[in-house]
Amino acid sequence: MSQTGHQALAEAVRRLAAAGVPDAAGDALALLGFALGVPRHSVRGELSQSLPAPAQTAFAAAIEARAARQPVSQILGWREFWKHRFRVTTDTLDPRPETETLVVAALDLPWDSVLDLGAGTGAILLSLLAERPGARGLGVDLSGAALEVARDNAQALGIAADFQCSDWFLGVEGRFGLIVSNPPYIALDEMAALSPEVREWEPRAALTDEGDGLGAYRAIVAGAGAHLLPGGWLAVEIGPTQGAAVAALMAAAGFGEIALRQDLDGRDRVVMGQFLP
């Protein structure tokens, strides 16, 4: 049965609210725009019209997926991050606004080559390279499927970057002026408290080390010195309570000029240190 946009939207909001979706109205509006193929700001102008059958079918499928708590970005197939739009899939971590803190911190540092450990969508690496023309960049990830997404994003944005399947530094050659990473930092005993959108839909290996949440930092800090140029920098995203522990790991490995950066909510988000061999 044909519905107007108003009717379909109201029904969708009720469906999402019943499923426990936090921003039912906002998500329904975004998904209706997706189904209609129009920007979100144009959706309200379509609400009094009958929905075309293809849009009604697409909207129903999108609402069903969101009611199952699939993230909006995965349904849309993309997420805005920094200054670009990145393709996302169930094989990649969804780029988050707080991760832009790492991009800002890295752009304050002097470097012309960068290694991104656990590149995922490539959002961090490609955002950095877009701001520093002529710089060289390598992104590594253990997931071949994630690397395919990163390569697609690089091609779509016209940004030159290399990608390699690797378990952290395994097989990585050469030295870099900067190493960045947003590694899995959620402790195993914290996983149950995550929202269904994260816990059930994002790749588990990108979320947790199945331990205390510091395992990735131990591996990265231990191997970074062999892959940094003298005076090069290591900058990593952290969970808000991990600043002191990660800074201590860097200090014990001989890093100097160690500093913490906060995100827009005032929480510790980035630890950075300079390699001083």
UniProtKB/TrEMBL annotation:
Methyltransferase small domain sequence ranges: 103-187
Span of domain Release factor glutamine methyltransferase N-terminal: 7-77
GO molecular function, one term: nucleic acid binding
Record field: catalytic activity: L-glutaminyl-[peptide chain release factor] + S-adenosyl-L-methionine = N(5)-methyl-L-glutaminyl-[peptide chain release factor] + S-adenosyl-L-homocysteine + H(+)
Keyword Transmembrane helix: no
Pfam families assigned: MTS (PF05175), PrmC_N (PF17827)
Enzyme class: transferase
EC number: 2.1.1.297
Positions that bind S-adenosyl-L-methionine: G118, A119, G120, T121, G122, D141, W168, N182
PROSITE patterns noted in UniProt: N6_MTASE
Keywords: Methyltransferase, S-adenosyl-L-methionine, Transferase
GO biological-process terms attached to the record: methylation
InterPro entries in the record: DNA_methylase_N6_adenine_CS, HemK-like, N5-glutamine_MTase, PrmC_N, RF_methyltr_PrmC, SAM-dependent_MTases_sf, Small_mtfrase_dom
Residues that coordinate or bind substrate: N182, P183, P184, Y185
Family: Belongs to the protein N5-glutamine methyltransferase family. PrmC subfamily.
Function comment: Methylates the class 1 translation termination release factors RF1/PrfA and RF2/PrfB on the glutamine residue of the universally conserved GGQ motif.
Entry protein name: Release factor glutamine methyltransferase
Protein's organism: Paracoccus solventivorans
